[in-house]
Amino acid sequence: MTAVVATLLLASIAVSSHAAAVEAAETTRRIPFCADVEVDPNGAVRIGEVRGVAQALQKLVKTRLSTLKLQPARRNAEKLAARSQLRGEVVLKPAPNDKYEFGIDPPRVTPCAISQIVPRFPATMAREGKSGSVLLEVRIGVDGRVVSAQALQSTRREFSDAALESARQWTFEPQWLAGEPAEVVIQWPVDFHMQTCITLERCNATDVSSISSRMFDCKWDESMPRVFDQPACADTMEVRGSRVRRGSRQMDIR
After folding, report:
1. Using CA atoms, how far apart are residues 152 and 150, in angstroms rounded to an integer?
2. If you average pLDDT over residues 66-70, what whole number do you get?
3. Mode of pairing for the β-strands spanning 203-205 and 184-197
4. Phi-psi region of 76 (alpha: psi -120 to 50; beta: other; left: phi over 0)
5. What is the pLDDT of residues 153-189, one digit of tens each?
6. Helix (H) or strand (E) holding 163
7. What is the mean pLDDT of the chain?
8. CB-CB neighbours of 59 under 10 Å
């Protein structure tokens, strides 16, 4: 990751004291962003609006992303122009003179969420101290709303029920193929992590799911372009559940 030194101009960051400012200056910052991207049949890209970072960083993000070459979208093996989104993280590392080294973690093509409710940890699984994993397949319609969702794999029915209830309410930025809005299918791992706490600050994992989301074998929807070497699975969504034990008493704090 080639570093570029940039002055820290982040509209979303505010410090209320000298101590907080010093601490912020010594911390590497990771800022998620979403960028519109058009990909032609040869894989060349044109970057549009960048959301999630301050205006002072948007030009740097666009310049870096414009050097990418993607695998183009396909329909029946034919390469077609497509419009989608790139998600990634800006990485700002402290540098001398109140500046930061600018970099971007490898971005990936995925529809950017407008609303993506995190599933609730199932109460029965929390009481039993169980963790689990689900592989969702989500079909996103031409308007960005979820048309259908199903659980392809799951450790327990309780986890798949919770994940599906949430996924059916998700909405995303629409996707385009050959100049028309298009349905796309995303396979989405969801990990439910359960931990038991002695106090609210001291927690340990109590159970390991029999299926790790890293073991899921996902299939990529070729109607979307793709960054070379990008995993077929969407980024894993993590859901954490906790319970506090004090002597013989237990309290769920999901």
Report:
1. 6
2. 94
3. antiparallel
4. left
5. 999 999 999 999 999 999 999 999 999 999 999 999 9
6. helix 157-167
7. 84
8. 10
